[in-house]
Design a protein that fits this description.
Blueprint (H helix, E strand, L loop, with lengths): L1 H23 L13 H57 L6 E9 L6 H18 L16 E2 L14 H7 L4 E6 L5 E5 L19 E9 L4 E9 L2 E3 L15 E6 L11 E9 L11 E2 L6 E3 L8 H6 L8 E2 L2
Antiparallel strand pairs: 1-6, 1-9, 2-5, 3-4, 3-8, 4-7, 5-6, 8-11, 9-10, 11-12
Helix pairs in contact: 1-2
Length: about 325
């Protein structure tokens, strides 16, 4: 910048000197031909050189100013990016991923092969019970349509017998549902619901507490489905993304679900996830955010609203994702 200013000054001085010299000096042009003499050409060249020198210095300053402005803008963007990243990292610590509780409902068609025998038996058992306690037994329809849902897990005689109805028992009264959260780079977080007695069977990442699983099973004879309600506290964690430790890390991931155990050659039960909630440590005073799914949906993209972080994402101008994928 100093050199450019000096060159501009020299250029202006040369041009000014040439102008003054031309006024004071005679013989710049030939009297006969009207053309510049040698002295005239020197003065004109000096003036032109001064203008070019001053103009070149000015252009250099302009280019340098533009470059400095771009570099300053880039540095400011880097500073802002670092500050935003630092803010994001601090925010992550306030919203931990674990200990996690997952509440969900699974729906099974009653008349599928795995459950058909048990369905026939429990249907007859409930029909007999209703006709015994009602003054008018004839008002109870044999297929139990029009009846409310029955909580079959509360009545021992309505639950599957593990000896001769093991297939139905393993489907309805055990649960190993696995929830898999996958990112675009194939990094994966996985949680599987298990009972406390099974804790030592699976290889898992360090847990925040022992797994606690509670089940409630209902029979809906109007829709002819069994509904299994599960609450899984501290589900076991697997997957290759071991550095994800904040609920924010779930946003934008595609959640899929599957039975966590093989059924050893027997046909897998037909089921749908119809409802789920993700409950984090910061949710215990707020309660669950229930997400309902229609039959046929096989995956779900986690949004900021699903983890109670919509305001945080809006305030931090973080990217929002779409919501549901249907195969």
């Amino acid at each position: 910048m100093v050199i450019a200013e000096l060159l501009k000054f020299i250029g202006v001085c040369l041009s000014a000197f040439a102008a003054i010299f031309s006024i004071k000096t005679e013989g710049i042009k030939s009297v006969n031909s009207g053309k510049l003499t040698t002295k005239g050409r020197i003065i004109v060249s000096m003036a032109v050189f001064g203008v070019l020198l001053s103009g070149g210095a000015q252009l250099t300053q302009i280019f340098d100013a533009v470059k400095n402005s771009q570099e300053m803008s880039k540095r400011q963007e880097q500073i802002v990016s670092r500050l935003e990243n630092a803010t994001y990292q601090v925010t992550r610590q306030y919203y931990p991923l674990e200990p996690l509780t997952i509440q969900y409902e699974i729906q099974y068609t009653m008349d599928q092969p795995r459950l058909q025998g048990y369905t026939n038996r429990v249907e007859k058992s409930i029909l007999t019970y209703l006709r015994e306690i009602r003054n008018n037994p004839g008002e109870t329809i044999e297929n139990l349509t029009g009846e409310p849902n029955f909580i079959i897990s509360n009545v021992e005689s309505w639950t599957p017998n593990p000896e001769n109805e093991m297939s139905a028992f393993s489907v309805l009264f055990e649960d190993h549902t696995q929830f898999i959260f996958t990112q675009s780079d194939d990094s994966e977080i996985s949680f599987m619901s298990i009972s406390k007695e099974e804790e030592g069977i699976y290889v898992q990442l360090p847990a925040r507490g022992p797994p606690i699983q509670t089940l409630e099973v209902l029979a809906d004879f109007n829709k002819r489905v069994f509904i299994k309600k599960v609450e899984s506290k501290n589900p076991i964690r697997t997957g290759n993304d071991i550095f994800a430790n904040s609920a924010l890390d779930l946003v934008g991931r595609q959640m899929t679900w599957q039975s966590g155990m093989s059924w050893s050659g027997r046909p897998d039960p037909i089921w749908d996830l119809i409802e789920f909630s993700l409950i984090f440590p910061y949710d215990y005073e707020i309660g669950a955010r229930v997400i309902s799914l229609e039959t046929g949906i096989t995956s779900y993209n986690i949004s900021p609203e699903d983890i109670g972080m919509a305001d945080v994402f809006n305030n931090m101008n973080m990217h929002r994702k779409s919501n549901i994928d249907i195969n």
